[in-house]
Design a protein that fits this description.
MATE_fam, MATE family efflux transporter, transmembrane, membrane, Membrane_Transporter-Flippase
């Protein structure tokens, strides 16, 4: 085996259960770190800069979530393309994906940063941000837009590494970024020591500095380690965009990004309906959703891990392994998500008490709605695992359609229809119904849909065997990408 192949993490070999778990845990860790970072930043701002500042950050983060949601899909498309190329042992195609991705993400991030910086007041106006909060939101959001190129490019590198079978390196540098952000936040807000006192702009500046340092450190590390996907001086021609890859990034990436938009807009509809039942119910729902954020994390991590692992096996045409990856992913979802849900049922009162005062009406409401809805995240987890597998081939529209049906056409109409009869319970029961519907549709598509025939590129990526046949060379024959000996 070549030295390049020897350094390549292989998701097409070895025990599936252990490989998937070891791959998923750093992804889960990255998600937890991001949530922790957001919580710590909100704590500093809310406690020391006041409610208007916290409102400003909430509004700004909504805009940022939409921007990152769109780029998530594009990054995920890159993960799948890299995974399929490396699974096929087609290093040339993997380098083309990286080169096109670098140019594309740099160009898009610069355009978003410039347009966002100029249009910040307009966007906040469209959101209806209160006037007192706008004074905080404008400087905060403008600095965040300056940070967008670092954020987008880091996201691209992180997803590329995952596609290449490495989830540990992104986790380490996410840890570096979060640590820097948490340390710098109070120093730049309050002007500790040599740092200037920047107020809310200090919180955004700490994010900018942390992201930029983490990105530069990651790039330096990849080149110092001579990572097999780095572009050397002689390979800079790959930075010229390949139109077929560019088309795949956009037309396969956008539907995956739109899934995040469908989820977030559905959440906005639900919170609007909850608000109609008064502040106590809204507070109860807010506390429950804080817990739900953490309950969803294992399923999302397993879904992301399954997608990367399946993509390499799709590229290698190892369909039996793809089927086994699906089964193991679903099993892990039941074990990890089920354990978290079990803990919440056991400590329902104590867990919600972290966010709500003791013995309050809102706490009782939160316990009630949690008992109705939280178990349904098991269904949500199965859906995410199945979505992770089917999108690894390039089948990205059916998951988007399934999510749209369950979150827009089933959940809100059900809640509205039964509201006169059972009140707010109609909203709580709409969560299990929507999750069950999406799981059943995802299972149906996985079983009978045409996802195995889908492609990321117009022409499927050729495996090492197929390339060798075309060029008339000796092909590997072991089925694992290990060149057969030539006597």
């Amino acid at each position: 085996m070549s030295s390049v192949a020897a350094r390549q993490p292989l998701l097409t070999e070895g025990p599936i259960a252990r490989t998937l778990l070891m791959f998923a845990l750093p992804i889960l860790g990255s998600t937890v770190l991001q949530s922790l970072n957001g919580s710590v930043n909100a704590m500093w701002i809310g406690h020391f800069l006041g409610e208007a500042a916290l409102t400003a950050v909430s509004n700004a983060n909504l805009i940022l979530f939409l921007l990152l949601g769109a780029v998530f899909g594009l990054s995920m498309a890159c993960t799948i393309l890299v995974g399929q190329s490396l699974g096929a042992r087609n290093m040339l195609e993997a380098k083309r994906v990286v080169g096109t991705g670098v140019t594309f993400f740099v160009a898009v991030s610069v355009l978003v940063a410039i347009a966002g910086y100029a249009g910040t007041p307009w966007m906040l106006g469209v959101l209806g941000t209160p006037a007192d909060a706008q004074a905080f939101a404008i400087p905060y959001l403008r600095i965040i837009f300056i940070a967008v190129p670092s954020m987008y490019f880091y996201s691209f590198l992180m997803m590329t590494l995952r596609g290449a079978g490495d989830s540990r390196t992104p986790f380490i540098f996410m840890g570096l970024s979060v640590l820097l952000d948490i340390v710098l936040n109070p120093m730049l807000i309050f002007g500790v020591g040599p740092f200037p006192r920047l107020g809310i702009a200090g919180s955004a500046t700490s994010t900018l500095i942390a992201q930029s340092i983490a990105l530069l450190a990651l790039l330096w590390t990849l080149y110092a380690r001579k990572h097999f996907l780095r572009l050397t001086r002689g390979e800079l021609g790959y930075l010229r965009p390949d139109l077929a890859i560019l088309r795949a990034l956009v037309f396969k990436g956008l539907p995956m990004g739109l899934q995040m938009i469908v989820i977030s807009t559905s959440a906005m509809i639900m919170i609007h309906m909850v608000n109609g039942y008064g502040s106590k119910t809204t507070a109860a729902y807010g506390a429950a959703t804080q817990l739900w954020t953490y309950v969803q994390m294992p399923a999302m991590a397993i879904g992301a891990a399954v997608s990367s692992m399946a993509a390499q096996n799709v590229g290698a045409r190892l369909w039996d392994r793809v089927s086994r990856i699906t089964k193991v992913g679903v099993l892990y979802n039941f074990l990890l998500s089920g354990a978290l849900i079990g803990v919440i049922y056991l400590f329902n009162h104590a867990a919600l008490n972290l966010f709500l005062p003791n013995d309050g009406e809102a706490l009782a409401l939160a316990q009630h709605l949690n008992s109705i809805a939280v178990w349904s995240f098991m269904f949500f987890g199965v859906t995410f695992v199945l979505f992770g597998v089917v999108r690894s081939t390039g089948a990205v529209m059916p998951p988007l359609i399934i999510l749209f049906i369950s979150m827009w056409l089933i959940r809100p109409p059900f809640a509205l229809l039964l509201a006169p009869a059972i009140g707010a319970d109609s909203i709580w029961w709409s969560f299990p119904l929507g999750s069950l519907a999406s799981m059943l549709m995802a299972m149906g598509y996985y079983r009978w849909g045409g996802w195995r025939r889908a492609h990321m590129l117009t022409a499927p990526i050729k495996t090492a065997d197929e390339q060798a046949v075309v060029s008339g060379q000796q092909a590997p024959t072991t089925g694992q990408g290990v060149p057969a000996s030539v006597d």
